[in-house]
Each structure stands twice: as structure tokens, then as C-alpha cells.
Amino acid sequence: MRKLTAAAALAAATLATPALAGALASLDMVPYATGLSQPVVFVQHPTAANTFIVVQQGGLARVVVNGVVQATNFMSLVGQLSTGGERGFLGLAFDPNYATNRRFYVNFTNPSGHTVIARFQTQAGNPLVADMGTRKDFVFGANAFITQPFSNHNGGNIMFGPDGMLHIGMGDGGSANDPGNRAQNPNEYLGKMLRLDVNVPDANATGYAIPASNPFVDGLPINALHQIWAFGVRNPWKWSFDDFGFDATNGLLIADVGQNAVEEVNYVSSMAGGENYGWKRFEGNNLFSATPLAYEPHTGPIHTYTHAVGFSITGGFMARGSRMCSYHGRYFFADYVNRRVWSFELTPAGTATDVVEHTADLLNGAQLPNLSAFGRDRTGQLYICGYSNGTIYRIVSNEPGLTGDLDFNGIVEFADLNALLGEYGTTYVFEDLNNLLGNYGQSCP
Questions:
Q1: How many CA atoms lie within 13 Å of 366's alpha carbon, on the beta-carbon side?
Q2: 412 with 279, same domain?
């Protein structure tokens, strides 16, 4: 029998390329995992199916498989960190090359309250347990930590960008009003976004290299620490890259917690770096102080809200793909204190429009917990962390999926057809092929 190829299947079909359109579907939050304590990070394990790692602020990283919290922890930093308030175990990210190097990275505050960025590996025979003996603390200047002058504004989020580099969000060092003007000081790591190349040998003394493309390596527009990617953030509690979906921009969205009046979301579509988000010269778009910017221009936020609305922004992710097709191209975020959730449309021009609140829809109108973080799996499914009740929720919409979009990236395309034909006769049958071809070229709006 002649093998059915993707080219032959396409030749047999009459194809169109419409985009699905319509109003936003209603949303709900469905409990996915319970019994956790103060979850602040929810990430998918890169090689273990249906498996997630949940970071608890108190020092444990828990394993969740198919929604069930496992008895054996992924790792424990209890006794090696300071906790309480804004301190603790705050960040975790898996290396893009984890499948071959078993590396992952963490962000926590040590017993003295300083920020530690450390590399670990999982055990050679067990990808769900860390090998604590592989710890390597990154070196910044003369120290294997970043000095924190106060207990708050530690940032904490770490994430790999589409550039393969490790990005780190650092708060301004705390207290209030950035008393040391650290966010505009080119010789401080605080109040900055950092970018590191961690593709180095285990024996590398600092644990990383400085990417040659970092914006201040050439001393322009000012001499600054070479690890710095961008200036002028106050406390970038959660931020993410728009790097999933057929039309992802690979841009960066930063939710920055405000001081007295304004919460903000910043966005840049390019990976050039060198932005100055303005703190403490600006809070949102408002002039906050007479402190000059370290350099111009000021990159202002694309969305703000005042403290009449909420007091502490929790950044989320772009919704792209057919898990929630009507929300394709919208950014989700929350307010931790006032327990509210919104989304806005990110336009091709990089602006925010059509802000919609979803709080009343979620949990069928019941009061939401304090929301500390969002998560996203490899199919684009969004999750949200209930800090105050220890529950992870899936955000779901009451709309049908996009038939034939096997990788959920928001378009039925050649990759889907190729994947179907690779499992034709086993996982998939003629009806699946016929449905895919009928939808070929369709995409989420």
C-alpha cells in the first residue's frame, strides 16, 4: 500500500485560510492541584509527561503529576534561606537543554536576606528529584549573591527567553521610594532586568558568561554592569515572554508593582535590550520624583491601573493557541491584594486595548484567593496559583477547540498534518484526517 504523505493529503484537499472570530467566551477556574503551601511558581517539567514543579515560598519545590501532589519533593531549601514577607524561595527555571544537561536554576534569599541565583541538576536516574550536591551559586562581583539592603522588593522571577538566555528580574532593594536610587544606578544589579548566558562548563567560576549582545557591554549609552539588560524597575514580581503560538512576538511583558499610586505593565517587542522603564523618576506614567534617568529615552508602560483598583500586580502570560481560541492574543494578569483578574488585547503595534475584567466569571463568582503567579504548559494552557489557599487552578473557557490543531498553537498547519500522518492508523483514523483537512489553514483570531 502506498504511504499517505502530507503533500498528497494536501493535494487532495481544497484549502482555505479563514480566521475564527467572535466574542470572548466565558471563563472559569477549575482546581487542578490542592494541598500546597504558599505557591509562587508553577512550571512544567521539560521531560516528564503531565508533570509540573510548584515552588513554595517556604523552601520546598513540590512535584505535581496529573494534578496530584506527590509525596516526594523535587527539592528542599529549608534551612538554607530566609523566609517571611517577600523573602523565600522565589524562582525556578529549567534549562532549554535540560534533556541533555539535567540543569535547572533557582532564585532564593539566603539566611542573610541576599538574593542567590544557583544552578542545580536533577539526579541522573530520577528527573523528579534534585541532586543537591550539584549546587553552584552564581557570582556577582565579589560575592556569590546579590546584596539586598532591605527585606522587600526582591523580585524573584527567572525565565529563559526565546534567545536561550537566562533572564532575572531584580527589585530595587526595598524599603520604600528606592532610597538609594538603585534602579537608576548603573553600578547596581537592583532595580534591573539581568541577562546571562548559562551555557558554560560546570567548572566555570561565575556560573555564567556575559552575552556579547547585552546592551551595555560596549559602554553605551552609559557604562553599566554588563549583566544588565534593562533599567528602572521597582519590583517586577512576575513577567513573561510572548513565545508560544503561531504568531507569537517573542516580546517581553513585565508587571511591575507600584509604590503609592500606580501598577503597570511594560512591553517590548524586540530582544534588543537597553530599555529604561523609568523608576523612580516615574511611577507608571506619573512623574514620581526629581531623580534624573540614568539615560534616555524612557520606555513607558502600555497599561496601568491605580490603587483605587488594586495594590499589587501579578503578571501572567499571553493567551495564544486553541486552548482558549477567543482569547488568542490577550495578556492575563491579576491583582494580589484585591483578588482581581483581567486581560487585555496586545495589538500588533505593541499597545494594550480592550481591557476586560474576569473576576466575576471565575470560580462562579466566589471570592478568589490571593493570586501570586500564573503558569503555562507546553500546549498554551494557562494556570493560576492561589497563594492563600494552596490551590493551583486551570483557566478554562466554554468554547470548542480548533479541530486539527494538534499542537494547540492556534493554527491548523503542515506540522499538524505531518504529526497526524506519523500516527495514522494508530492514534488517528480517516475521520481525524478528514476533519483536519477541512480546517486546514484556520487559525484563532
A1: 7
A2: no
77 in the same domain as 48: yes
Residue 52 backbone class (left: φ over 0; alpha: ψ -120 to 50; beta: rest): beta
| Number of domains the chain contains | 2
* DSSP of 92-103: EEE-TTHHHH-E
358 shares a domain with 305: yes
pLDDT at 3 > cutoff 80:
no
Give Cα 104 distance to the centre of its chain: 15
Place 15 in a pLDDT band, splitting at 50, 70 and 90: very low
Tell me how crowded residue 245 is: count the other CB atoms within 10 A of its CB: 21
373 plus 427 within the same structural domain: no
Sign of the Cα torsion 243, 245, 249, 253 reads negative
pLDDT in tens, 391-426: 999 999 999 999 999 999 999 999 999 999 999 999
- Residues 123 and 82 both lie in one domain: yes
Tell whether the model's pLDDT for residue 14 goes beyond 60: no
- Give per-residue pLDDT as tens, 241-262: 999 999 999 999 999 999 999 9
51 with 5, same domain: the answer is: no
Beta partners for residue 318, in sequence order: 331
Please tell me the predicted confidence (pLDDT) of residue 307: 98
CATH number of the domain to which 198 belongs: 2.120.10.30
Strand partners, 239: 254
- Count Cβ atoms below 10 Å from residue 274 Cβ, excluding itself: 18
What are the distances in angstroms from CA 130 to CA 94, 223, 368? Answer: 12, 39, 33
**Whether 7 and 73 share a structural domain:** no
List the domain range (segments joined by +) for residue 160: 29-401
Task: Return all residues near 289 (Cβ < 8 A) that are at least 6 apart.
Answer: 177, 280, 281
SS3 67: coil
- Arithmetic mean of pLDDT, 270-286: 95
- Domain shared by 396 and 412, yes or no: no
Q: Is the pTM of this model over 0.90?
A: yes
The dihedral region occupied by 116, where left means phi > 0, alpha psi between -120 and 50, and beta the remainder, is beta
pLDDT at 21 over 60: no
Give the whole-angstrom CA distance, residue 154 versus residue 49.
32
